[in-house]
Amino acid sequence: MSHPRLIIYQELLGAPIPLSPQELYRSLLKKQKKIGLTSIYRSLDLFESLGMVFKIINGPSVKYKLCEIEDHHHHIICKVCGEAVALNFCDISDWSKKVMESTGYQVIDHQFYFYGFCKTCRPLKI
Ligand SMILES: [Zn+2]
Ligand SMILES: [Zn+2]
Ligand SMILES: [Zn+2]
After folding, report:
1. Fewer CB in a 10 Å sphere around the end CB: N or C, the chain?
2. 53 C-alpha vs ligand 1 centroid, how far in Å?
3. What domains are there in the chain, each with its CATH number?
4. What pTM was computed for the model?
5. What's the CA-to-centroid distance between 119 and ligand 3, angstroms?
6. What DSSP character marks residue 105?
């Protein structure tokens, strides 16, 4: 990994919650590490394509977090604080079958997210 990518990776590694490219940029800047937004976007795209990070789209916000599980899995994301928890299971075989039957497509991959309110934010929403 080249130097800026390594720095971005380490920043994500130390982040307890998902970060947007802008947040990454600002927190690196605070540490006297000036990496251009374009490099940050490019590195995040690369990490995502390698399955090292996952991208959380929540309305207009896009954030990234490192994946702690290497195998195929999904996440549940808190709509309020943005915390993401990995779900180390995936059981959508019936659903894939329905998609294949109704479209004739051969399903090779899928992506989806669960959204909700985490234990901390839940009381605020009731
Ligand atoms: Zn993950
Ligand atoms: Zn929350
Ligand atoms: Zn899955």
Report:
1. C
2. 7
3. 1-67 (1.10.10.10), 69-126 (3.30.1490.190)
4. 0.69
5. 24
6. P
The single-letter code of the amino acid at 83 is E
pLDDT tens per residue, range 22-70: 999 999 999 999 899 999 999 999 998 888 888 888 778 899 988 878 7
Distance 51 CA to ligand 3 centre (A): 13
Query: Ligand 2 centroid vs 21 CA: distance in angstroms?
Result: 20
Helix/strand/coil for 78: strand
Long-range contacts of 3-7 (CB under 8 A, 24+ apart): 4/35, 4/39, 4/43, 5/43, 5/46, 7/33, 7/35
Report how far ligand 1's centroid is from the alpha carbon of 66 (Å). 7
